[in-house]
Amino acid sequence: MRVFLTGGSGYVGRSVIPALVRAGHDVTALARSESSAAAVAALGATPVRGELTGTEVLRRAAEQADGVIHLGASTGPDAAAVDLAAARALQAGLDGRGAYVHTGGVWVYGNTGGVVDEDAPKAPPQITAWRVANEEKVLADADRGGRPVVVMPGLVYGNGGHLTRAFFTEPGRASGAVPLIGDGSGHWALVHVDDLAELYVLALDAAPGSVYVGVSDQNIPLADIVQALSVAAGHPGGIERLTLDQAVERMGPMAEAFALDQQLTGARARRELGWTPRHLDALADLAAEGA
Q1: Separation of alpha carbons 108 and 126, rounded Å
Q2: Which domains does the chain have, with CATH numbers?
Q3: For the purposes of burial, counting CB atoms within 10 Å of the CB of 187, is it exposed (0-12), middle (13-18) or buried (19 or more)?
Q4: Residue 291 pLDDT exceeds 60
Q5: Are the C-beta atoms of 226 and 165 separated by less than 8 Å?
């Protein structure tokens, strides 16, 4: 299969491209710079020069593909508009010939109140609220003959870079200390980046309109995660307790998402796609990454 993807030189993309190549696919990847082009080429993909906002480039690249994976994201104030415009261009170019795999995220489920799946009600924090409407519009393309699929990753870790790195770099933190928001009783739903990459590959064969939570059923209390991160930082037990208000003041609205109490299951992906996560000891992996 000829697969085009955005975000190929990003954290998740650096695992997805090799996974696609191992599966025998011919991969092209959007690259906005010479360094990005070199990165995706080294991973086994053919670079396509352009920006995520360049919808005509996206449409033409999708026209040459049998399937598309959209990993790229804007971090600016227009993130919602950029994401939707890119999705529209990619879906138009693909024109139903193969799956269009869109990236969501489990934060849209808010506090879950126990273990939930893809059918749980949405209660997103401010930083990710826009995703709900975009995902609905993407999935509606199934009614017009498209093959949209949405993958909803949990908190991604592994291979020396993970979303929890924000805890190492957030401004104002005490030297060597990892912040703990609240009392640590909330949970994070985790997934290793290499396991998530395999899910994206499998999603290319999913039924139109499918939604898959990308978590490996590691719903771990935040207190335990922060302890592992303190080991990785070289300061075991170096933890700085913050109230939610203090965390928001330092980190901005992302703190509200990090403070969510979420437990989710990836059983649907295992059942329907044969997804088999292999990295099942997140705490050991997180603690070792700083060694």
Answers
A1: 9
A2: 2-154+191-214 (3.40.50.720)
A3: buried
A4: no
A5: no
Polymer length in residues for the chain: 291
Q: Using an 8 Å Cβ cutoff, are 73 and 156 in contact? A: no
For residues 31 and 7, is the Cβ–Cβ distance under 8 A?
no
64 — pLDDT class (breaks 50, 70, 90):
very high
Distance of CA 76 to the CA centre of its chain: 17
Estimate the share of the chain in helix, then strand, then coil, as percent rounded to the nearest 5: 40, 20, 35
Burial class (CB in 10 A: 0-12, 13-18, 19+), 243: exposed
Provide the pLDDT for residue 160.
Answer: 78
**pLDDT for 176-217, tens place per residue?**
688 899 999 999 999 999 999 999 999 999 999 999 999 999
For 89-143, how does the pLDDT look when each residue is reduced to its tens digit (9 = 90+)?
A: 999 999 999 999 999 999 999 999 999 999 999 999 999 999 999 999 999 999 9
The separation between CA 271 and the C-alpha centre of its own chain, rounded to angstroms, equals 21
Cα–Cα distances in angstroms (integers) from residue 135 to residues 57, 139, 142, 254, 270, in the given order: 22, 6, 12, 20, 22
Other CB atoms within a 10 A radius of the CB of residue 281 amount to 11
Can you name the residues that pair with 242 across neighbouring β-strands? 181
What is the pTM (predicted TM-score) of this model? 0.96
